[in-house]
Write a structure and sequence with these properties.
Radius of gyration: 17 Å
Helix content: over 70%
Strand content: under 5%
Number of strands: 0
Largest sheet: none
Order of helices and strands: HHHHHHHH
Structural class: mainly alpha
Number of helices: 8
Length: about 190
């Protein structure tokens, strides 16, 4: 399996670090490379079949969330789409290991930034997948960490997280209907 293959794990981490730490000047197509790596990081974090937070998993979660949140906190995402892709890695990290991510956010004073960006861009999470990530990520914070163990920063922002969560749940059926419509249209075009 992926998580059992140390060499593969190290290779994926090296790719993520290389692309996420290069500047626009380092490579043609930097934005496309970064977008692909963000999607890879999200997929890796969501691929933990056991749901356990092994040492290897914690290392990957911390690295991926650290790479993405540093860019979000330093306002280095040049578009809302890129910011959303970065936030989706953090949400996937929360699903994989909520305690580790919350600790990392707090250690770097990123909790406020994460919540603020999530609230600011919440309505731009338009796809079914986006909304499900928001729901699952915030659920992980609320279900896997006791309220009394939540850092004060997140306790103060629980109402904001719940507002983003409620909006994602409320708008999920509309996103699902829009996706179904697109699928039906694509199916009808292929039949012709």
């Amino acid at each position: 399996t992926f998580w059992g293959n140390h060499r593969l794990l190290v290779a994926v981490m090296d790719i993520a670090k290389r692309v996420m730490t290069m500047s626009d000047d380092d490579s043609y197509g930097y934005s496309n490379e970064q977008e692909s790596v963000l999607e890879m990081m999200e997929a890796v974090l969501l691929s933990n079949p056991s749901g356990s937070a092994s040492e290897g998993m914690q290392q990957v979660v911390q690295m991926f969330v650290g790479l993405t949140m540093s860019k979000v906190a330093e306002e280095k995402c040049d578009t809302n789409t890129m910011t959303i892709l970065h936030l989706e890695v953090v949400l996937a990290g929360l699903i994989a290991d909520a305690s580790s991510v919350v600790s990392l956010l707090e250690a770097h004073n990123w909790s406020e930034v994460f919540v603020a960006k999530l609230a600011l861009l919440g309505e731009k999470f338009t796809r079914v997948h986006d909304k499900r990530l928001v729901i699952a990520g915030i659920s992980s914070i609320l279900n896997k960490i006791k309220l009394s163990d939540l850092p004060a920063t997140l306790q103060r922002n629980t109402h904001t997280l719940l507002s983003v969560y409620a909006d994602a749940i409320h708008t999920l059926p509309k996103a699902m209907a829009a996706r179904k419509k697109l699928q039906d249209e694509a199916e009808n075009e292929s039949d012709q």
